[in-house]
Amino acid sequence: MKRVWFTFSLFALLGAAMPVLRNGLVEQPHYFPTVAYDFKKNPITSQKVELGRLLFYDPILSADNTISCASCHSPYNAFAHTDHDLSHGIADQIGTRNAPALFNLAWQPSFMWDGAIHHLDMQALAPISHPREMGEEIGHVVQKLQAKALYPPLFQAAFQDSHVTGQHVLQALAQFQLTLVSCHAKYDSVKLHKARFTPQEANGYALFKQNCNVCHREPLFSTYQFAKNGLPIDTTLDDLGRYQVTQKPADSLLFKIPSLRNISFTYPYMHDGRFKKLYQVINHYTSGIVPYPTLSPALQQPIVLSPAEKTDLIAFLLTLNDKVFVFDPKHQFPKKILMPSEGF
Amino acid sequence: MLGKHEAHARSLVIAGFSCAAGARILNKGHPMGGRQGLDGGDVPPVICNPAGHCVSSLLKMRDVDHQGKTRQVGRALLTKERLLQPRHWISAGNLQGHILPLLLLGLLTFGILQAQTRPVHIRFAPTYEGAPLVLGAHYRRPPQDSVVFETLRFYVSELQLLQDSKAVAAMAPRHRLLDLEDAASLTFALAVDPKQSFNKITFQLGIDSLTNVSGALGGDLDPTKGMYWAWQSGYINFKLEGKTPSCPARNHLFQFHLGGYLPPCANLQVVELPVYGVPTEIVIQFALDEFLAQIDMRDTYEVMRPSPKAVQLAGCVAKTFKCVE
């Protein structure tokens, strides 16, 4: 009997602990799948999120203190880098890929266009260390943060330890990014029966389910798997995508399927930002696919859309724009805190 | 029978003062302590951390009787021990009230607990042709070459002393970064039950896959330690860098960053070495000259990503570890 009670109270405790792990800071719509991120190992607190937000916007993370995460992941572009096909880092160096938008990261099992990063905590290490992005070294970042008067008290508040460590820097950055949940687009209102699609959007939705949903699966609008979408290789970059991680020939030219949420805010499109306009993307899928042998099975059958259908499809895709998310003040630059401390 | 009592005494560590009394009887009756007449099979496995705290024994309130049945060690046993307790202890308690003897008992408990484990020092000793390896020193490399080492750093995980297949002591925390630049990182102590013999030492070279996918970790696993790949998630298990004129790379620099946790390039190696006698120090030699002898530096000099080559090299590293007397 004792054991039954013990088990019962254990489950009750776990049940009670679940919302605490996210502290109401990470939204979870009921129609979203379960998260991939393990909140038990890094329970969300407002102090850690706030510290993470400061770090995200502070150029101290880069070698010459000029580039912050937000330089290439701007909140007004759903944390993508509008107007740049390839992003630029310290000393105006150009990278090799388009900066992906950041939202709904708790649901993603891997990160980067090639999935080289397997955990959100570890993701920030890549841009910090890349010579063309931030060109820094995490150990030196830790030293700089320790030396800047602003940070030790914030690390104390967030982690009960004013001694800055790589672990805590990365966890704080991950926590802020976990709060970037996009679930307030018109599509979401329709899901919640608070709005209705126009006839044009409804037709676009039907076309979407028929042609796009296999890879860009709703409600996240991506399976976050990798696929070869038939783009001809850009020989100025020779980017082989997933192959560079796995070294498997079958993974050559496979890239992460991006989410279609916030599509108007995240142009240009594709891993190398080659398309500036949405209609160029649609035209690629209807008439531009190169029939590589390892082309995604979902694209083996040609997608046929009339001009009117393309317009309807785009009308639906625009319902995935989430202005509530993009203009949410709690995700923006922490002006009050960071501005006075400029000039370190 | 003595072994039986010792086992009880250890199991009752959690019970505090009573334990001290029990342990004292043993010491009085048999000054040699537990070294005599111990039937290893009777004693529950004790895993100790280097600080000397018996980890598992603190959790164990059960013991095994002669018939091999598990039973609760409770009040009855304490009573039995009290009966066996020498009388002068009790009279001393009456004289001074209860506080002083309890304090003394507490101190004694502490002393006995300390005495119940002995340290076995583990020392990793990178060498070159038998002499301790020095970073930056020039070494002869047969047949007609030289070599300078600049970095040697690797993870040792789950190090245990074993009696056959039974763990006698384990390293804590589970992962340790050994860095030739930090001499203190190469040595540490395990607390071992003095009655317990052991004939093997085992450890993993590197970081297991589960730890690899557990997000940002601290201590020796903090990514600031330079043993985490930024461009592709995963720990570097073993890092060796240096220069040798026959290496065709820029500045003749060779770099081995061995890691990777996913099959088919899972890099983790398990090392098991025999230990003879009852040593107070176990020296695990890593002879760099023997390691390099297995490699043709003309075509193997930059291995810095998970690959079959990295697995092969990690195998060479693992084979090079030797226990020296």
If you had to describe this structure to a student in words, what would you say it looks like?
The complex is a heterodimer of chains A (344) and B (325). Chain A is mainly alpha-helical and 344 residues long. In chain A, 38% of the residues lie in helices and 1% in strands. Chain A is built from 15 helices and two strands. Chain A has a two-stranded antiparallel ribbon with strand order 1-2. In chain A, helix 2 runs antiparallel to helix 7, helix 2 (46-57) crosses helix 8 and helix 10 crosses helix 13. The longest helix of chain A has 21 residues, at 2-22. Chain A is globular and about 60 Å long. The model of chain A is unreliable at 13-19 (pLDDT under 50). With 325 residues, chain B is of the alpha+beta class. In chain B, 34% of the residues are buried. The model of chain B is unreliable at 1-95 (pLDDT under 50). Chain B contains nine helices and 16 strands. Chain B starts with a helix and ends with a strand. In chain B, the strands form three sheets. In chain B, strands 5, 6, 7, 8, 10, 11, 12, 13 and 15 form a nine-stranded mixed sheet that branches. In chain B, strands 3, 4, 9, 14 and 16 form a five-stranded mixed sheet that branches. In chain B, helix 2 (17-29) packs across helix 4 (75-84) and helix 2 (17-29) packs across helix 6. Chain B has helices at 2-11, 17-29, 55-59, 75-84, 87-95, 99-116, 209-212, 288-293, 308-320, and strands at residues 62-64, 70-72, 118-128, 131-132, 138-141, 145-163, 166-170, 175-179, 187-192, 200-205, 236-243, 253-259, 269-274, 281-287, 302-303, 321-324. Classes of the chains: A mainly alpha (344), B alpha+beta (325). Chain A binds chain B through residues 38, 41-42, 116-122, 125-126, 128-130, 138-139, 142, 165-168, 170-171, 174, 245, 247, and chain B through 213-218, 221-226, 228, 230-234, 307.
